[in-house]
Amino acid sequence: MLDHVKKIKEKIDTALSKTGRSVDEVTLIAVTKGFKAERVIQAYEAGIRHFGENRVQEAATKIPGLPDDIIWHMIGHLQRNKTAEALKLFDIIQSVDSKRLAVEVSRRAKTLNFMARVLIQVKTAFEETKFGVEPEELQELFETIEQLENIEVSGLMTIGPFTENVDMIRRSFRLLRKLFEDAEGAGYRNVSMEHLSMGMTDDFEIALEEGATMLRIGRAIFGPRTS
Description:
CATH architecture: Alpha-Beta Barrel
Number of helices: 9
Shape: globular
Order of helices and strands: HEHEHEHEHEHEHEHEH
Oligomer: single chain
CATH topology: TIM Barrel
Strand order of the largest sheet: 7-6-5-4-3-2-1-8
């Protein structure tokens, strides 16, 4: 595990050196979907403090027994009926992808009396199997969130296309960066563009070149999933 984490960090350093950016600008999130708590501890001991889960139910079986200083990211599609539980488990929800979900997050967070930190998931790969708000609907979603309480948008997230075509992957990430920059200058209430979450095991180096500040890495850290 330590060797895997070391190799990933070396690749991150190399990719960032091409753009003149610092490693301090990038957060490495280890994606633990399908891996037991023991593997999470191994990654924790290798120095990782940010972890991502795709499913609320799976996270609920792991998180309570793991170190309290772990920062947990919900990175999978969130069903509205799981919102309250997700808010209790996760420090940040990266997959808000609709007005209805944003309203539910706001309502549940107000009931729990805390500020929910979220990212907006945008569909930039234009694949039917992917979740995310359409780019042309992002402004309307921000305008909705401006009127809500107990929710704060900290950036954008996307999943790149499943392809070996580097140009297609790069276009997807460049689109998210453009939307990020547009939102940054718009001055929306409850919206601050701090995080650009894009890039996974197969495309994180491209994502870094295009401005990613959060990487969601699973297989390159933990190896292939067995389930």
